[in-house]
What does this fold into?
Amino acid sequence: MKAKQNIGIVNALIRITFGFTILSWSTAKLVKKPWRDSYILLALMGAMKVGEGILRYCPLTALYEKSQEQNGNYVGGQSGSNQENERGGQRPRQREQFRARPQE
It folds into this structure.
C-alpha cells in the first residue's frame, strides 16, 4: 500500500522536532526508572510522531478526511497543496475576486 502524503512540510517538521524531543526525554527517564511502563509508551508515541513527520502521512488525519468525504463535508486536502480533486486532477477553482464599481 502506498500512503498518500496528507500533512504539509511545516507540520512534518514540527512532528519530527517534538517526536525527537519526547523520544529523547522518555528514554532518559527510562534509563533511571526502567520499571515504569509509561516511559515506554511515551517513547513509542515519540517514535510514531517522528515516523509520521518523515513519511508526511498521518493515519488519524487520513481517517478524518475519509469520514468527511463520506459525510459530504470534505473541502479539500491540506491547505496550500496541489492535491487532485474529483474534476480529473485539476486544482479547485478559487473564488473570483469582485472589483469595486468605479465611483461616478
